UniProtKB/TrEMBL annotation:
It catalyses: D-glyceraldehyde 3-phosphate = dihydroxyacetone phosphate. PROSITE patterns: TIM_1 (PS00171), TIM_2 (PS51440). Involved in the gluconeogenesis. Catalyzes stereospecifically the conversion of dihydroxyacetone phosphate (DHAP) to D-glyceraldehyde-3-phosphate (G3P). Substrate binds at residues 9-11, 174, 214, 235-236. Belongs to the triosephosphate isomerase family. It is an enzyme of class 5 (isomerase). The keyword Signal does not apply. The active site is at residues 96, 168. InterPro entries: Aldolase_TIM, TIM_sf, TrioseP_Isoase_bac/euk, Triosephosphate_isomerase, Triosephosphate_isomerase_AS. NCBIfam families: tim. This is Triosephosphate isomerase. GO terms for cellular component: cytosol.
Amino acid sequence: MRKNIVAGNWKMNKTLQEGVALATELKEKLASAKPNCDVIIGTPFIHLATVSELLEGSIIKVSAENCADKESGAYTGEVSAAMVKSTGAEYCIIGHSERRSYYGETFEILKEKVLLALKNGLKPIFCIGEKKEERESGKQNDVVKAQLEGSLFNLSAEEFSNIVLAYEPVWAIGTGLTATSDQAEDMHAYIRSLIAGKYGNEVAENTTILYGGSCNPKNAAELFSKPDVDGGLIGGASLKADDFKAIIDAFN
């Protein structure tokens, strides 16, 4: 059985003190809850060690938002997968569309990041998705297929079983636009068919595929009701404890 997951991506928001306050509030709100999904928060690097310690023993897992494509060495300002793991984080977001577009992260760079995350015992939350013009010209399937083949389909079936996928239509991130639940389901089903073609039905059925792209308390239940949508990678709504909990509650 594949996991349902609600994961927050804080992006470049919250000072350390504000992040600790938000994590504390979430921990308190979920202390007596028994959600029907796993809960993850993705925080900036500087929060990881403090927040991981704070959340130890709670139901909330911690993710980094990125890691380096190099193991170690003279790469000033970079943070390695081993460093991320040492903070107590269990997951790492890789390939977010903002990293691809603003920082030029290629299929090859992302392939290296995935391999290093897995080598260090992290579970990648790997992001894929098309831009507005690609959707409008009907190329969304080709784009997503190329992203999977370019960075993930080199993995063995055993390695791939540690990947969580997040489909994010780039045109719906932070824009207020959301893919309809049918659009999301169509793409998630297509992604699952690609995985089945590569690794077989069992691996495909066990792969968690999250929807990312202006998922909020109002639309979460409808999105999550679709058979191939296994949760969400939540941006803005993860920065408010009440909103994030409302999305988690959409699974109940």
